[in-house]
Design a protein that fits this description.
This protein is of the alpha/beta class. It has one domain: Class I glutamine amidotransferase (GATase) domain (Rossmann fold), CATH 3.40.50.880. It is built from six helices and 13 strands. The strands form three sheets. A nine-stranded mixed β-sheet has the order 4-1-5-6-13-12-11-8-9, sandwiched between helices. Strands 2-3 form a two-stranded antiparallel ribbon. A hairpin with a 7-residue loop joins β2 and β3.
Length: 250
């Protein structure tokens, strides 16, 4: 049941052709993002691409979920290779998501980045990118092999003593995997989990109440860690919301 302290989570969207009017673009969000947040006790709203009004947008929410998508960040944001073959860019989306993250962190609002969302968080805090994981050599796992993200693809090992591992409640977990790029280590964040091949699978940004990135998709609920992380995100948003409620001073 929704109550006055139910946190509102803003979800970033992808764009695609409208299913009925193919010449009309539409904002698109998979339903399981919304359903997973609802199960965790939040309501979700879809956020538009509006860089100029990013501050106003985050003023209406209590937490920001930056979703994944099958596209790449602009390579000039991290010193990458321009014009790389098979690169898929969505400049308007990336610009909007970066503005939303900046506005949210300025307020110390809880932020969770998923897949591309984690990569954007990492790049915003100094990361360069592995632009194509298979190019790292024969030791690299196939991080795009899952037929469906509902399946576990490989393990992640949480960094001992990290906050995200404490939230997950396990030392390792099975996760899905649908990405061909990954962040490299940088001083602006802590590595919270890695895959067996050393690819960074989760990060935490220090200095904020809740700011994490996951390279996998927790909305599919592949393991208990997924539900625990989403629950902690929603609870952080609830605590963020409470002082802003009209009766909080009474």
């Amino acid at each position: 049941m929704l109550t006055t302290d139910t946190p509102v989570i803003g979800i970033t969207a992808d764009t695609a052709a409208h299913p009925e009017e193919r010449d009309e673009p539409a904002y698109m969000v998979r339903r399981n993002y919304v359903d997973a947040l609802s199960v965790a006790g939040a309501r979700a709203v879809i956020l538009p691409y509006d860089v100029e009004r990013a501050e106003d947008t985050v003023a209406m929410i209590d937490g920001l979920l930056v979703t994944g998508g099958r596209f790449d960040l602009p390579p000039d944001w991290y010193g990458g290779q321009p014009g790389r073959e098979n690169a898929v860019l969505k400049q308007d989306r990336s610009l909007a998501e970066r503005a939303l993250i900046e506005a949210a962190l300025k307020r110390d609002m809880p932020v969770l980045g998923v897949c591309n969302g984690m990569q954007l968080l990492g790049v915003m805090h100094g990361a360069s990118m592995i632009e194509h994981i298979p190019d790292e050599g024969p030791h690299a796992l196939d991080h795009m092999a899952a037929d469906t993200p509902a399946q576990g693809q490989h393990a992640v090992i949480f960094t001992p003593g990290c906050a995200l591992g404490a939230i997950a409640g396990v030392a390792s977990a099975r996760v899905n995997s649908v990405h061909h790029q990954a962040v490299r280590s940088a001083p602006g964040f802590r590595i919270a989990a890695v895959a067996p091949d050393g690819i960074i699978e989760a990060i935490e940004i220090p200095g904020y109440r809740f700011c994490y990135g996951l390279q996998w998709h927790p909305e599919y609920g592949v393991s208990s860690a997924d539900g625990a992380i989403l629950q902690a995100f929603v609870e952080a948003a609830r605590l963020y919301r409470q002082p802003r409620m009209p009766d909080s001073a009474s």
